[in-house]
Automatic annotation (TrEMBL):
UniProtKB keywords: DNA integration, DNA recombination, DNA-binding
PANTHER family per record: PHAGE INTEGRASE-RELATED (PTHR30349), PROPHAGE INTEGRASE INTD-RELATED (PTHR30349:SF64)
Protein name: Phage integrase family protein
Keyword DNA-binding: yes
Family membership: Belongs to the 'phage' integrase family.
Length: 179
């Protein structure tokens, strides 16, 4: 996939969308993704996105499906377009025709106890063994495990405090009782 530069001159429309996203507290990564999706849509459309019709939006979605875009890419574009047309332009009529795609139900493969034991044996040091064991036992995401601090672990209550996890949310994870 080609790298897309989103550092093009900032139009008043883009500036307005960025302000709308900021005021609604969208995370920086979400904002970047929305701008990237809007850039792709504008490039496909060949004119400013505020001139699009409902038929243009429909044809863009059809083109995404036909080009083999993943459900995540299509749904990301739908979210960006919905935000742009409902919030920035206040044109709910255009956003109504946007259709999210069903994601296939992919069940993540979970390592067996034996596989995890082999992985821990292969870890080069105690620090890595501890990090892998805690991440596996508590079901942490990689980014959550990477930012974990000793103070986040409550060994009396067997809880791990995960701050700023997925979606910027805080949560508690159970600590595995096994050693």
């Amino acid at each position: 996939m080609a790298t897309i530069s989103t550092t093009a001159p900032v139009t008043p429309l883009r500036q307005r969308m960025q302000h709308d996203m900021m005021m609604r507290g969208l995370l920086p990564r979400t904002q970047d993704q929305y701008i990237r999706h809007m850039w792709r849509f504008s490039a496909w459309l060949g004119r400013p996105p505020d001139t699009a019709t409902s038929e243009d939006l429909r044809n863009f979605q059809i083109q995404q499906h036909e080009s083999g875009a993943s459900a995540g890419t299509i749904n990301g574009a739908v979210s960006a377009l919905r935000f742009f047309y409902t919030v920035t332009l206040r044109r709910r009529d255009l956003a109504r025709g946007l259709v999210a795609t069903r994601r296939p139900d992919n069940v993540r493969e979970v390592l067996s106890v034996e596989e995890m034991a082999r992985l821990l044996e292969a870890a080069p040091g105690i620090k890595y063994k501890a990090a892998l064991g805690v991440a596996y036992g508590a079901g942490l995401r990689v980014s959550e495990a990477a930012y974990l601090k000793v103070d986040d672990i409550d060994s009396k209550r067997m809880l791990i405090r995960v701050e700023q996890g997925k979606g910027g949310k805080d949560r508690n994870a159970m600590l595995s009782p096994q050693r």
